[in-house]
Design goal:
This protein is an alpha/beta fold. It has helices spanning 23-34, 70-84, 103-108; strands spanning 2-3, 12-15, 39-43, 46-49, 57-58, 60-64, 92-97, 112-115. The termini are far apart.
Length: 131
C-alpha cells in the first residue's frame, strides 16, 4: 500500500478508467471498505498526478469520517488489500476528508464502490406528533 499525498496546486487528472480492474476485484475491494468503520465513501478512478506518477492508473480514493482514527483506518485497509489483491499488484490509496476541493471531481468520475448512507431519522408515531 502506498499513500498518495498530493500537495495543493498539483495538477491531477481524474476520470473513469479506460481499462477498469476486473469486476470481481473491485467488488472485493468494495466489500473490504464497507466493513471498515470510518470509511464514508470509496472510489476507484483512474488518476494521473503530474510529477508524481509514471503513468495513469486506478487508485483507491477513500473519504474518511472526520472523527475516525485515520492511521487505524488506513492500516485496516492496507491489511485487507494484502488479502484481496493478486500477488504482485499494488493499489495506491488517496485518503481525503469531505472538505477536499478535489472531492467533487472524484465524485464526478462516477467510480464509487461505497457510499455510507445515514439511515433517515425515525419518524414519530402519529399519536406522538404533538409531543
Amino acid at each position: 500500500m502506498r499513500l498518495l499525498n498530493v500537495p495543493a496546486g498539483t495538477r491531477v487528472l481524474l476520470g473513469a478508467p479506460a481499462k477498469p480492474m476486473p469486476l470481481a476485484l473491485s467488488n472485493a475491494i468494495a466489500d473490504l471498505v464497507r466493513s471498515i468503520a470510518g470509511v464514508h465513501e470509496a472510489y476507484l478512478p483512474q488518476c494521473f498526478i503530474m510529477d508524481a506518477m509514471e503513468a495513469p492508473c486506478q487508485v483507491l480514493v477513500l473519504v474518511l469520517d472526520g472523527t475516525a482514527d485515520r492511521r487505524c483506518v488506513l492500516e485496516q485497509v492496507g491489511e485487507g488489500l494484502e488479502r484481496v489483491l493478486p500477488r504482485g499488484m499494488h493499489l495506491d490509496i488517496w485518503p481525503m476528508v469531505g472538505a477536499s476541493e478535489l472531492l467533487t471531481t472524484v465524485r464526478g468520475t462516477r467510480t464509487h464502490i461505497h457510499i455510507h448512507c445515514q439511515p433517515p431519522p425515525a419518524k414519530k408515531p402519529w399519536w406522538k406528533i404533538f409531543g
